[in-house]
Amino acid sequence: MSEEKTPFTALEAPAGDVTSLTLSLVGKLLAQSRQSPRKRMLQKLHKTHEATAHRMFNAMQPGTYITPHRHLDPPKDETLLVMAGAMLFIRFTDEGEIAEQLLLQPGTETFGVDVAPHVYHTYVPLKQDTLVFECKTGPYDRESDKDIPDWAPREGSPEAEAYLLELLKTLAAKATAEAEAVKAARGDEPDQ
Questions:
Q1: Alpha-carbon gap, residue 6 to 21, rounded angstroms
Q2: Phi, psi of 101 (to 5 degrees)
Q3: How far is CA 21 from CA 14, 29, 31, 45, in A?
Q4: Mapped to the 3 state alphabet, what secondary structure does 84-96 carry?
Q5: What is the rounded distance in angstroms from the CA atom of residue 45 to the CA atom of residue 56?
Q6: pTM of the model as a whole
Q7: What's the CA gap between 106 and 89, in Å, rounded?
Q8: CA 157, CA 68: separation in Å to the nearest integer?
Q9: For every one of its 192 residues, what pLDDT tens digit does the chain have, with 9 covering 90 and above?
């Protein structure tokens, strides 16, 4: 009988009281995210699960699925800053409808988000080697870290990939409709 293995998800924090945040550090992380079956990898900077502030780099590749979630019980604020690449932040209603989407890119007006504990959300990387710096209230407890709604497929489930594709199709259709509305308001000819 074989034991099911959990995919490797995070690198331990470097030792020492001062950690240099270097291109080499994140370069290795990005390389590992490309090799990961999950298409993402964390580099923890906090030394223990009990730390009151969890800081980490999250390296992501397009196609990774981050289950929609919130951090309600116990309440945890979450801040993300996109350092490289691009990703969509998607906020959901409690019923699972898309309430808002934001394009996050470094060097642009919107390069990150700060999310309240009660907000259901997910992130979708749009470019290879998307790198995010994340800070979240600790401590970490695997059982209570994320509140996952019934309408969201769990990562690794057979429904997850189809859900992600449908989510992207919905966002693309919404963007197309918004672009057409702008063209119509300006009096442009519709695309043929």
A1: 28
A2: -135, 140
A3: 10, 12, 16, 9
A4: ECCEEEEEECCCC
A5: 5
A6: 0.88
A7: 14
A8: 13
A9: 333 344 568 899 999 999 999 999 999 999 999 999 999 999 999 999 999 999 999 999 999 999 999 999 899 999 999 999 999 999 999 999 999 999 999 999 999 999 999 999 999 999 999 999 999 999 888 888 899 999 999 999 999 999 999 999 999 998 898 888 888 888 876 655
Q: Which of 31-38's residues contact partners 24+ apart within 8 Å by CB, and which partners?
A: 32/59, 33/59, 33/60, 33/61, 33/129, 34/61, 34/128, 34/129, 36/7, 36/8, 37/7, 38/7, 38/9, 38/64, 38/155
- Of 27, 59, 23, the closest CA to residue 42 belongs to 59
The token pair that represents 98 in the structure block: 């898309």
| Pairing state between β 53-60 and 40-44 | antiparallel
**Number of residues that make up the chain:** 192
Measured CA to CA in angstroms, residue 8 lies from 78, 80, 91 at distances of 23, 22, 27
